[in-house]
Write a structure and sequence with these properties.
By secondary structure, this protein is of the alpha+beta class. It is built from three helices and six strands. Strand 4 (69-77) and strand 5 form a beta hairpin. This is RNHCP domain-containing protein.
Length: 142
């Protein structure tokens, strides 16, 4: 059964109490994604490209009508130290947070984590000037 049609088959809240043990094909990279290896009962994104599909309005409700690709845009660390991926829908812009899976691509995860460092919101060549303007001496020497 295709993921898109599952919301028509099960009663409201079904996915909150039942595992998502289905296989699906990623709409972005085409990889066949199986539930094995995720480390939990709920596989909600591709472990290769980390993309998902906009299926839920609330976690597990399968009531979203959008169906757009949920693109990974960042990672964050929860209070318990667990990492989660922030996804943004390419169609409607909805944001969601999904815990990482045990078999997620570590290079992709680190790439997301390093994105703010590698692409700062200011030109790096201006950092000395900006430091001076903020009251520092502008020196990068420690």
């Amino acid at each position: 059964m295709k993921r898109e049609n599952k919301k028509k088959s099960f009663e409201k809240g079904y996915y909150k109490t039942h595992p998502c043990d289905h296989t699906f094909v990623c709409k972005v990279c085409g990889r066949t994604v199986t539930p094995m290896g995720a480390g939990s009962n709920h596989r909600n994104h591709c472990p290769n490209c980390l993309c998902s599909q906009h299926l839920d309005d609330l976690p597990g409700d399968r009531s979203a009508d959008c169906g757009g690709v949920m693109e990974p845009i960042a990672v964050w660390v929860r209070k318990n130290g667990e990492w989660a991926i922030i996804h943004r829908c390419r169609i409607c812009g909805e944001l969601s947070s999904n815990r990482i899976a045990a078999d997620d691509n570590p290079i992709k995860l680190m790439s997301l984590a390093m994105r703010p460092v590698s692409l700062p919101p200011f030109p790096l060549e201006k950092i000395e000037e900006m430091t001076r303007l903020m009251g520092g001496d502008g020196s990068l020497k420690v």
